[in-house]
Structure formats: C-alpha cells, structure tokens
Specification:
This protein has helices at about 45-55, 55-65, 110-140, 175-185, 195-205, 210-220, and strands spanning about 1-5, 10-20, 25-30, 35-40, 80, 85-90, 95-100, 100-105, 145-150, 155-160, 165. The protein has about 230 residues and is of the alpha/beta class. A hairpin with a 6-residue loop joins strand 3 and strand 4 (about 35-40).
Length: about 230
C-alpha cells in the first residue's frame, strides 16, 4: 500500500491498494470519512495509477465538494441533536446542559468534543432503550441487552441471542429515524432475515418505514462528518 497526492487547492491524498483480483483500476470515495482509495491490479505501475487519478480529478473534486469537510463540534459550531441544529456553547460548571436553543458544555475548550460525545452516548442509550422496550413489548419478545458503538457500516444489529447493538450517532437524527432503527432491530428478534415476513413485522410494530429508511440512505453518511475526538 502507498499513497499518491494530486496537487491543487486543496491537494487530494489517494490511498493505493493493490489487488490480485482487480482486472482494472477503480477509484472509490468514502462518504463516511472522505478517504479516496485507488485499487489497481498488481502489475500496474504507479505512473499509470497517477495518470488515472488525474483523469478522474474533476469527478473527485466535485464529489468531495458535495460531501463537505469534517466538522469539529466545538464552541460556536452546531450539531443536529435529535435532528435539530443546536449551537454548542462553552459553559462553566461540571456537566453538559441542554437548553431550548443551545447545548452548554463545560470547558476547557479542547475537551468539548470528548465531553459532548460522552453526553450524546448517554442520551442515545436512554432514547434507544425506551424505543427498544416499546417495540419489544409490541412484538411480545424480550431482548437480552443493548450496546452502543460508533459503527460505520450499519446503524444497528441483532444477534441470535437477542443482543441489540446501535450506533450512538442515532441521537443526531430526528426521533422518527431513531425509532425506526430500534423497531428494525427488534423485529429481528422474530425474523433473523430480511424476508417479507420481517418487513411485515416492522410494519406491524412500527407502522410505515420507507420514508425513514430513505432518510438514512440520503443523510446517514453525513453524520460521520462530525468528529468527536474518537
């Protein structure tokens, strides 16, 4: 593995990945972290890889601009708490306090992202537990436990022994999105698949869900632009 850099404003760093299975060069831009990866067959020289990247530079810059840069949640910035843009203020005291129009986080300023992350995780745990309890009661099946992670590939999961896992970043989404994900994973307690019977179960305990799933597909990746020092 190596890297290439396309000069310009700003320069673009490209991670090179060689693959014995690759038959041609391919370029991928991650919507989660903005990383650019160029996969190429084993014997393709780096000079060809650079020429390929230059040929795709306009496409790359266009998509990087659409994605936007990463956001450090610190004083004066805002986060989409429960789907509502909420300003972050530096405050005195020892605990995070949510006001109607802002969220106050105690300093020092450089510790705001980490302190805010801890508070968001606890809020997510509370809301997701409430939602999971509700849908499990609707379903008539218990779950065994809930864990929170900062997953990139999925918003939740359910194991065969009834353990539910959720991304704590769901607290950044509108409540109806968080509720849908909770219902989705609880429905797996009855149907460990994505068959029609599974989706019928989601509909039965939650109601219509397609709008919420579409929202996640369109906006979910953007929630990973917020960097909390993790």
């Amino acid at each position: 593995m190596g890297t290439l850099r396309l000069p310009g404003t700003p320069p673009i760093d490209i991670l090179l990945r060689r693959s014995a299975r690759a038959r041609r060069m391919s370029l991928r831009l991650s919507q989660l972290d903005g990383r650019v990866t160029l996969t190429l067959p084993k014997r393709v020289p780096e000079t060809e890889a650079l020429a390929f990247a230059r040929d795709k530079e306009a496409w790359l810059r266009s998509h990087l601009e659409k994605r936007g840069g990463d956001i450090l949640p610190t004083a004066g910035a805002a986060i989409p708490l429960r789907g509502v843009e909420t300003r972050i203020d530096l405050a005195m005291g020892r605990r995070v306090v949510l006001r109607p129009d802002r969220i106050e986080v105690p300093g020092p300023a450089e510790q705001i992202p980490a302190r805010l992350r801890g508070w968001l995780r606890e809020e997510a745990r509370t809301r997701l537990t409430q939602a999971a309890d509700h849908y499990a009661a609707e379903l008539g099946l218990p779950y065994s436990r809930i864990t929170l992670r900062d997953t990139r590939s999925r918003w939740g999961s359910c194991t065969s022994d009834g353990a539910l896992m959720f991304s704590w970043r769901l607290i950044l989404t509108p409540p109806e999105i968080l509720n849908y994900v909770a219902a989705h994973e609880v429905a797996h307690l009855a149907e460990m698949n994505h068959s029609q019977a599974f989706w019928d179960t989601v509909t039965r305990i939650h109601g219509p869900w397609k709008t919420q799933r579409t929202w996640l597909r369109q906006h979910g990746a953007g929630l990973h632009r917020y960097k909390f020092g993790d």
